[in-house]
Design goal:
Layout (H helix, E strand, L loop, with lengths): L1 H16 L33 E7 L17 H9 L1 E3 L2 E2 L4 H10 L28 H7 L3 E7 L18 E5 L10 E3 L5 E3 L2 E2 L2 E2 L8 H15 L6 E6 L11 H5 L7 H26 L6 E7 L23 H4 L3 E4 L8 E3 L3 E2 L3 H8 L16 H6 L7 E7 L22 E6 L2 E5 L18 H11 L5 E5 L15 H17 L27 H8 L10 H25 L1
Parallel strand pairs: 1-10, 1-11, 2-13, 3-14, 4-5, 4-10
Antiparallel strand pairs: 2-12, 5-8, 6-7, 8-9, 11-12, 15-16, 16-17, 17-18
Helix pairs in contact: 1-11, 5-7
Cofactor: Ca(2+)
Protein name: ARSI Arylsulfatase
Organism: Corythaeola cristata (Great blue turaco)
Length: 573
């Protein structure tokens, strides 16, 4: 009975939002045979390499853009997407660091050791230094490279900083979230510091400026001081719309009729970010870049529903492997696109931007073998089939194992207690604990039929650790087909086994008290020396040449910092 009520509710609600006009049932446009990641299609013959602006927003929900039926005003994003190519089969990662690492390296997080959680401020961890980054490849191709915004790929050593990883300039924060005006970030009680950096220096003088405005102004300044005759790459990683929910009052006033306070503030932040994108686009035109430019817009993960975000009508939220956590807002806007003003259903993943943009820049990919991304420019620009047929969403061996999972449940192929998810053509498999699994409507809506929520309670009560969905036919993940299609389940489990064999050890070291901002002038920043790194990362094998005396010194040093941290915390409490 609940299923019938759910179906009826879905039709009524989706008609009211206009979702049935979306061609969710359209057959997959991916190729039947997988291509090698390095089998790249050549970019079109531009007269010169295009200027590239990559805009990444933080925690913006799938529903939270005008052209997805949102009540939030995003006129700039709507116009840019309408005049370009909307990517409606576009996937990202469920949290911050994994999406950013895969964008910058073109590799799944199991191939960089970042498959568990995020890089936390006090961890001696960062994007592996042996990875050749996207900006480094663009520098090789003759590009000027600039980053503005949130890094969140580690900073415990100077070698980890954006300016050491391929960016000529950097203005932004190193940690995961900061105050939009003061740029303070607290990583627990009493562990607070300032986090806004200009290059490798702390930008104390910029405090008080709203970050969304500050970052857009910096992009305009970069464009004004550069020559449009020389190729440029600008990575704009807005802090917006991550918590804390802060926005100039004039933007909040526009949404004064919204009853939900968090949604009201969140909506204001989205609209403010939309205007920042408008100013960046205007600067591209004013300074002569636009006609030879490619603008890529992407979210980094699903919206956080208890902080104002909405992924409706998708299931789940940020931090989960349901569609609401991993299906992103994405589009490309460029005068260089051959087939504009359309929606693409080609399968695209955030790792694909690395080979796609390097190919557009006429860069060399031959010396970066083993990329997990594909060049999808022909699919975007010309409407050709995507070379991608599958996506490994992730395998996280450290995440809490599902209570009811087992190797037996995985046909002896895979332990279903392990958190993992994979998409192969139209099929999506999840094992372990995928995360909070509700369907959450925009907070401005009320009086939903109980059957919708009752079905979710029933699903949670089934003691499951494995789900299978036909995402092409069922994008809302309502109908689990794992019992009906064991043949598909076995095939996808085998793919998980294949990927797991290629995974490198997880990089997730313990936090170190030396990272405390009080030891670094009150700001978050690099704190470890090159000699420290090997011991504190906690993942590398100790070298045999190290003698006992040196190990003893290290033990004493660790003990000293543990005691010091305990005293600091007790004094603050």
């Amino acid at each position: 009975m609940a299923v019938y009520a759910l179906t009826g509710f879905s039709l009524v609600s989706l008609l009211s939002f206009g979702y049935l006009s979306w061609d969710w049932m359209k057959p997959s446009l991916v190729a039947d045979v997988a291509m090698d990641p390095m089998e790249k299609s050549l970019p079109p013959a531009f007269t010169r390499p295009p200027h590239i602006v990559f805009i990444l927003t933080d925690d913006q929900g799938y529903h939270d853009v005008g052209y997805h039926g949102s009540d939030i005003q995003t006129p700039t994003l709507d116009r840019l997407a309408a005049e370009g190519v909307k990517l409606e089969n576009y996937y990202i990662q469920p949290i911050c660091t994994p999406s950013r690492s895969q964008l910058i390296t073109g590799r799944y997080q199991i191939h960089t050791g970042l498959q568990h959680s995020i890089i936390r401020p006090r961890q001696p961890n960062c994007l592996p230094l042996d990875q050749v980054t996207l900006p480094q490849k663009l520098q090789e191709a003759g590009y000027s490279t600039h980053m503005v915004g949130k890094w969140h790929l580690g900073f415990y050593r100077k070698e980890c900083l954006p300016t050491r990883r391929g960016f000529d300039t950097f203005l932004g924060s190193l940690t995961g979230n900061v105050d939009y005006y003061t740029y303070d970030n607290c990583d627990g009680p009493g562990v607070c510091g300032y986090d806004l950096h200009e290059g490798e220096d702390v930008a104390w003088d910029q405090s008080g400026k709203y970050s969304t405005f500050l970052y857009a102004q910096r992009v305009s300044k970069i464009l004004a001081s550069h020559s449009p005759k020389e190729p440029i790459f600008i990575y704009v990683a807005f802090q917006a719309v991550h918590t804390p929910l802060q926005s100039p009052k004039e933007y909040i006033y526009r949404y004064r009729s919204m009853g939900n306070v968090a949604r009201r503030k969140y909506a204001a932040m989205v609209t403010c970010m939309d205007e920042a994108v408008k100013n960046i686009t205007w600067a591209l035109k004013k300074y002569g870049y636009y006609d030879n430019s490619v603008i890529v817009f992407s979210t980094d993960n699903g919206g956080q529903t208890f902080s104002g975000g909405s992924n409706w009508p998708l299931r789940g939220r940020k931090g989960t492997y349901w569609e609401g956590g991993v299906r992103g807002i994405g589009f490309v806007h460029s005068p260089l696109i051959k087939r504009k003003r359309r929606t693409s259903w080609a399968l695209v993943h955030i790792t694909d931007w690395y080979p796609t943009l390097v190919s557009l820049a006429r860069g060399n990919l031959s010396n970066v073998p083993g990329l997990d991304g594909y060049n999808v420019w022909p699919a975007i620009s010309e409407g050709k089939e995507s070379p991608r047929t599958e996506i490994l969403h992730n395998i996280d061996p450290l995440y809490n194992h599902a209570k009811y999972g087992s190797l037996e449940d995985g046909f002896g192929i895979w332990n279903t207690a392990v958190q993992a998810s994979i998409r192969v053509r139209e099929w999506k498999l999840l094992t372990g604990d995928p995360g909070y699994s509700d369907w959450i409507p925009p907070q401005t809506l009320t009086n939903f039929p109980g059957s919708w929520w009752n079905l979710e309670r029933l699903t949670n009560g089934l003691k499951k650790s494995m789900w299978l969905f036909n995402i092409t036919a069922d994008p809302y993940e309502r109908y689990d087909l794992s019992d009906q299609r064991p043949d598909v389940v076995r095939a996808l489990l085998m793919r998980l086994v294949y990927y797991n064999r290629t995974a490198i050890p997880v990089r997730y070291p313990a936090e170190n008290p030396r990272a405390h901002p009080d030891f670094n002038g009150g700001a978050w920043g690099p704190w470890a020396s090159e000699d420290d790194a090997e011991e504190w990362e906690g993942i590398r094998e100790p070298q045999k040449s190290r003698n006992k005396k040196k190990k003893c010194k290290i033990c004493k040093l660790r003990s000293f910092f543990r005691k010091l941290n305990t005293r600091l915390m007790s004094n603050r409490i």
